[in-house]
Amino acid sequence: WLLLLQADRHWPDLCRAIDREEFLNDERFADIVKRRAHSVEMVKELDAAFAGRSLEEWGEIFDRHDVWWAPINSINEVVEDPMAQAAGAFAEIPGPDGPIPVVATPADFTDTPQAPRGAVPELGQHTEEVLLELGYDWDQIVALKESGTIP
């Protein structure tokens, strides 16, 4: 759930923030190459350090120690994020069970309103149309349906 940028530059700030300055003198963690080589041990140590506090608490600590960080959110957390909502990152399209959020276009054009083209198709909604375009006749399509090959 944590993202660090410029790992060697920010490693000392992170070590101080989590109160594990001994990592700075640990040869296994001396630089990004060594931390990668010893990543299993490093992750175990970091997991132990992080276990005692919530994300919110760590966020406040990291901010105080100038640690560049960001949470890595689940898809649902991203869709529900107030900043993503305010930025217009998502649009809704109609679905069979209600609106479905989709990623909005990253570019905004003044004279072209942003709107999804239409609803998500149901499973098999266009199967017959596609098969007809591919040259299948109705007898073949019926046979495919009866065999369970298509819905």
TrEMBL record:
Statement: the UniProt record of this protein carries the keyword Transferase: yes
Keyword annotations from UniProtKB, A to Z: Transferase
Cross-referenced Pfam families: CoA_transf_3
Keyword Transferase on entry: yes
GO molecular function: CoA-transferase activity
PANTHER family per record: SUCCINATE--HYDROXYMETHYLGLUTARATE COA-TRANSFERASE
Protein name, UniProt field: CoA transferase
Originating organism: marine sediment metagenome
